[in-house]
Amino acid sequence: MNTPFIGVSPEIQKIRETIDAISIDAALNVIITGETGVGKEVVARTLYESSPRKKKGFIKVNCAAIPETLLESELFGVEQGAYTGANKKRRGKFELADGGVLFLDEIGDIPFPLQAKLLHVLQSGEYNRLGSETNIKSDTWVISATNHNLREKIHRQEFRKDLYYRLNMFQIDIPPLRKRPKDIPELINHYTKTYKKKYSHREINDIDTPTFNRLCSFSWPGNVRQLISILHRIFLMGCDGDTLDEILYDPPCPTTHHSDTATSIHGQLMDEIRHFAINTPNDMTTFSLKEIKKNATDIVEKEVISQVLTTTNWNRTHASKILKISYKTLLTKIGQLDIQRPGY
Ligand SMILES: Nc1ncnc2c1ncn2[C@@H]1O[C@H](COP(=O)(O)OP(=O)(O)OP(=O)(O)O)[C@@H](O)[C@H]1O
Ligand SMILES: [Mg+2]
After folding, report:
1. Ligand nearest to C-alpha 194
2. Rounded Cα gap, residues 81 and 55, in angstroms
3. Cα separation of 125 and 123, whole Å?
4. Taking a C-beta distance cutoff of 8 angstroms, is the pair 274, 153 a contact?
5. In Å, how far are 97, 104, 109, 160 from 113, measured between CA atoms?
């Protein structure tokens, strides 16, 4: 069964409306962007499920996971005898996705030489298997996903601009979970039900209120994927208030306390840059280096102060000493940066 697309935030509601609008005729190629774990594949599958193409296949290709030499035959197929060892005809993903959806995951990693071939199919609607001259008509809805900033890749000449425009007839950008905190309780409730069902043979307690509040106020650098794996762990191992922070900053959220902060800051800064990259080309008046610098500083300060306050259990005297700022400055920053104490 497919994962339902959970979320009540205005951001997710807007994405849902977009999905409804563009899946009706499934004609415009869509690119889905967002940080790791935000739900790009969930959105791709929801697009497919909502479209008339759902009767045919949803074929996924992870462009980052397949070696460059194999990706071409993987996409377009191989004719018998095309090269030594090609002893039988093999259909490619384009052919398998005929009438359905071809989901090109991690599109930012598609090797440069192959980009021209992909562009050709998207432009002409035709391709041929390796070793064959016969053109095959392509009827697929191409949905791609990336957590790279493709505009940056275009700028570095690693990604073709013309291909970008072909793939990006419509963009769906999924904001990180920390930017849509209203979705967290919904996701917790949904996955609580899932795990209760999965582990119906053992008693699973509901999450207590302090834990629930802490989960709702965490910054989730690994987004929904991280939230699910933490919930899984809580349901299997149990957890009280004291162990929760250890769990939040422990594997499987991949790293230690400090690099977790770094991942989160990096994600937020990338958002800022992505926002700038999307808006500025259309509206130069929004560009201000001073403002970008101020936003970046606020993001870093807010994340670091929040983490130190969590570590010191909101002992502000202790936190101000660690941060080497006065107690008064810390209080001012907590107010200015709107740092919320979980559960208060
Ligand atoms: N809105 C959502 N509702 C329900 N489950 C979700 C939602 N968003 C993400 N998930 C779940 O979170 C996990 C990660 O989602 P997904 O694989 O779609 O992320 P992604 O953006 O493709 O990540 P990556 O960039 O790492 O490939 C999956 O288990 C998925 O089912
Ligand atoms: Mg994915």
Report:
1. 1
2. 33
3. 6
4. no
5. 22, 16, 12, 10
Is residue 41 in contact with ligand 1, taking CB distance under 6 Å? yes
Distance, CA 110 to ligand 2 centroid (Å)?
15
> Distance between CA 69 and CA 66 in Å, rounded?
8
- Give the Å distance between the CA of 344 and the centre of ligand 2: 35
CB of 7 shorter than 6 A to ligand 1: yes
Paired tokens of 49? 């499920």
Please tell me the distance between residue 67's alpha carbon and the centre of ligand 2 in angstroms: 18
Q: Return residue ranges of the chain for CATH 1.10.8.60.
A: 178-248
pTM, 2 dp: 0.75
Largest CA distance in the chain: 76
Q: Which of 171, 167, 187, 179 is nearest to 15 (CA)?
A: 171
Q: What is the CATH number of domain 10-175?
A: 3.40.50.300
Phi, psi of 259 (to 5 degrees): -75, -20
Delimit the CATH 3.40.50.300 region(s) of the chain.
Answer: 10-175
For residue 252, say if its preceding peptide bond is cis, omega within 30 degrees of 0. yes
Give the architecture-level CATH label for domain 178-248: Orthogonal Bundle (1.10)
Q: What is the pLDDT along the chain (344 residues), one digit of tens a residue?
A: 578 999 999 999 999 999 999 999 998 999 999 999 999 999 999 999 999 999 999 999 999 888 888 899 999 999 887 777 777 888 999 999 999 999 999 999 999 989 999 999 999 999 999 888 899 999 999 999 999 889 889 998 999 999 999 999 999 999 999 999 999 999 999 999 998 888 888 777 788 888 899 899 888 989 999 999 999 888 887 776 667 777 776 544 333 345 556 666 776 777 667 666 655 555 555 567 887 788 888 888 988 898 888 877 888 988 898 899 999 999 999 988 888 887 66
User: What ligand has the least distance to the C-alpha of 226?
Assistant: 1
The number of beta carbons lying within 10 Å of the beta carbon of residue 281 is 10
Q: Are strands 30-33 and 141-146 parallel, antiparallel or unpaired?
A: parallel
